[in-house]
């Protein structure tokens, strides 16, 4: 049996006619940049997330970058985030000349640890009652990441941000539809950065992104920044960039919005079935496989990934590949250890939970159309590997 990590063809076959009709409408209009489809998607997104406004941009990376630009963050500033995330989270900070400051993760959720954040502030930073500083730079913002489809612990993070006068940019690239204490991610901080990369729960047919924002002035600024900083064509208030969501992508995404909640519900059913199947093996009780955990405050997990902690991860992955089962490692090297960030001065051992995770995590097939037969095959293959190894 072949079980890919993600099967986008299965999804496409169900919505093919609707997608083609939507694309044809854009082609007939010959309006490819921004336009009515983007506006309609922005309106839907703002309503779905529960914020006053949303701004379509060219990618999830640009959603992060433009949010930082809207805050006018630059070389004199520092931004706090996690080392256990996709490169864009930190790359966006560095591109503006700001200093990324890392905080270790919660081992259960893989998200930024509020306790580690508070310890960092109390032991390594200075606060004069108004400005928080680190290495001579003003700490302006926190970028928590809602990893694998589950919200970070936003209540304590928001409280810390309020105490120390920091903005909060939610990296929600993997978590559209996820909820924290009943509120959708992207509505909790000052900005929410979303990705429409094809593999996401709401994925386009190319790159695309969206920023959710609660402040109307910031929304106006973001709309200017995405077109080279101009509110009026050829008159530039800021030095922005070219980051516009294409009409074709917006049209495709509008079709998919009709199915998003259903797909997310199906993902939750797939996750629950994995939980049940693994519990029927000796792997969990023996501590060989650790299942993903959902925080009680994470009132809706959307399961962008189903990520295990496992023993002998690399050997298991090779075995599963031989059995026709797709897997992925998110992420094999934490960002504080990446060569391009060596000048930040971090060393191995600085963030033990992130470093432990990078050695143990393995994501297995997860998508709404995954069948029980396929899941049984995946779980049996994992159990068989450990039996062959004499571990169970």
Would you kindly provide a written description of the structure presented here, covering whatever features stand out?
- With 392 residues, the chain is of the alpha/beta class.
- The protein folds into 2 domains: 8-257, Aspartate Aminotransferase, domain 2 (3-Layer(aba) Sandwich), CATH 3.40.640; 260-388, Aspartate Aminotransferase, domain 1.
- Helices cover 40% and strands 16% of the residues.
- Strands 1, 2, 3, 4, 5, 6, 7, 10 and 11 form a 9-stranded mixed sheet that branches. Strands 14-15-16 form a 3-stranded antiparallel sheet.
- β12 and β13 form a beta hairpin.
- It is globular, with a radius of gyration of 21 Å.
- The two termini are 24 Å apart.
Task: Pick out its properties.
392 residues; alpha/beta; Aspartate Aminotransferase, domain 2; Aspartate Aminotransferase, domain 1; 2 domains; nine-stranded mixed sheet; three-stranded antiparallel sheet; 16 strands; 16% strand
CATH class membership of the largest domain: Alpha Beta
Task: Give the tally of β-strands.
Answer: 16
Shape type: globular
Strand content: 15-25%
Distance between the termini: 24 Å
> What count of helical segments does DSSP give?
12
Largest sheet: 9 strands, mixed
One letter per element, helices H and strands E, the order comes to HHEHEHEHEEEHEEEEEHEEHHEEHHEH
CATH architecture of the largest domain: 3-Layer(aba) Sandwich
Measured as a percent range, the helix fraction is 25-40%
């Amino acid at each position: 049996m072949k079980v890919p990590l993600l099967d986008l063809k299965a999804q496409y076959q169900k919505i093919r006619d609707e997608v083609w009709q939507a694309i044809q409408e854009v082609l007939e209009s010959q309006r490819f940049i921004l336009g009515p489809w983007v506006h309609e998607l922005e309106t839907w997104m703002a309503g779905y997330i529960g914020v006053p406004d949303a701004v379509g941009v060219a990618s999830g990376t640009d959603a992060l970058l433009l949010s930082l630009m809207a805050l006018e963050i630059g070389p004199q500033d520092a931004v706090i985030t996690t080392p256990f995330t996709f490169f864009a989270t930190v790359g966006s900070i560095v591109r503006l000349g700001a200093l990324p400051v890392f905080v270790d993760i919660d081992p259960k959720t893989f998200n930024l640890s509020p306790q580690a954040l508070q310890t960092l502030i109390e032991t390594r930073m200075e606060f004069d009652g108004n400005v928080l500083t680190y290495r001579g730079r003003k700490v302006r913002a926190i970028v928590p990441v809602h990893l694998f489809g589950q919200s970070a612990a936003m209540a304590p993070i928001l409280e810390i941000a309020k105490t120390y006068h920091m903005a909060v940019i939610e990296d929600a690239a993997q978590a559209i539809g996820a909820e924290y204490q009943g509120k959708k991610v992207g509505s909790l901080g000052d900005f929410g950065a979303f990705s429409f990369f094809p593999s996401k729960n709401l994925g386009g047919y190319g790159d695309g992104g969206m920023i959710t924002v609660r402040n109307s002035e910031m929304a106006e600024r973001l709309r200017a920044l995405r077109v080279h900083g101009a509110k009026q064509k050829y008159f530039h208030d800021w030095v922005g960039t070219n980051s516009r969501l294409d009409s074709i992508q917006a049209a495709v995404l509008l079709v998919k919005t009709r199915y998003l909640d259903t797909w997310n519900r199906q993902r939750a059913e797939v996750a629950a079935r994995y939980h049940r199947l693994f519990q029927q093996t000796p792997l969990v009780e023996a501590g060989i496989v650790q299942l993903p955990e959902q925080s009680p405050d994470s009132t809706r997990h959307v399961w962008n990934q189903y990520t295990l902690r496992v023993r002998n991860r690399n050997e298991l992955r090779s075995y599963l590949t031989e059995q026709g089962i797709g897997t992925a490692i998110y992420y094999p090297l934490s960002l504080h250890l990446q060569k391009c960030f060596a000048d930040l001065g971090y060393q191995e051992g600085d963030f033990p939970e992130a470093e432990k995770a990078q050695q143990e995590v393995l994501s297995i097939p997860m998508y709404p159309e995954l069948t029980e037969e396929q899941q049984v095959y995946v779980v049996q293959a994992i159990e068989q590997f450990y039996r062959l190894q004499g571990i169970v």
